[in-house]
Amino acid sequence: MKIPGLVDLQVNGYRGVDFSSPTLTREDLVRASQELIDAGTTAFLPTLITSPLEVYRRNLPLIAQVMDQPEFRGRILGIHIEGPFISKLNGARGAHNLDWVLEPDVGLLQEILNWANGKVKLLTIAADIDGSEEIAKFATSQGVTVSLGHQMADEEDLIRLVQAGAKALTHLGNGIPGQIDRHNNPVWAGLANDDLSATIITDGHHLPTSLIKTILRTKGPERCIVISDATMLAGFEPGQYESMNQKVILEETGRLYNPQTGYLVGSSATILDCMNHLASLNLVNTDQLLKMGFENPLRLIGLSKRDCAAQDNVCYNERTKTFTLSSPS
Hints:
By secondary structure, the chain is an alpha/beta fold. It is built from nine helices and 15 strands. The strands form four sheets. Strands 1-4-5-6-7-8-9-10 form an eight-stranded parallel β-sheet. A hairpin with a 2-residue loop joins strand 2 and strand 3. The longest helix is centred in the first third of the chain and has 15 residues, at 53-67. The two termini are 15 Å apart.
């Protein structure tokens, strides 16, 4: 069966192009975006991780300009900024550079949104840092969806941020230390909060099947959104590389990690890969898969199917439970 498409709210880069690179060019962005679309991603949000301010000032207008090109209307739906207002703690910070993490500053956020020409659709912040409520309230007032991640937030933190306008949790189950308190931790707090949808990386490496099942049973497919968290190494062969200013290893299995810390450094998968892994687990039906890969991400950022360009190169086989690229007609 032909499906309406797959929408990815977190793409850090693709096939050698890093959207947070200080040397990102218009040509590289166009090429990576087209190759991503050709690989089965109907529409997506280019994502800038925590970066020096000059990178935001340089790259955000560039992405905004490419968004306005006719071929990317309905394809590049906006921009996701993950940081810089996140936790400074090791583990919770993930692969984000400590030197570039900043204290919440509404004035700075206003500048960042201006540099993006109003095209930021999603902002990830930590709920447990001072000033996060003010950031959430301001972002929400500007039409930006606020998601909570890279944090050590507890239940009360999440409740406060929901009241300030937050709508989601960024890659629930990831962006936390390897060891956490058995009861008081961001995973349990996130699962327990019925007001927050959860984005999840179902690439087969970021989350074990048991946790994916738990998230689905707790949140329900209507409040879950599949993301890839793809990096510039997505689409590359296994090997040793440098990504996000660190040495990383991409294994044959697709696992991408820092050998010094053991932490994952984004994903080498596309949204098509992530949806196929999720489908293989037999945890949800076809309608629920399509909600999590198409309808829910659009709804989270305030868009409808009409805002997403039609795609006809992705099919879903209900018998084999696989998403595939269809042959050109």
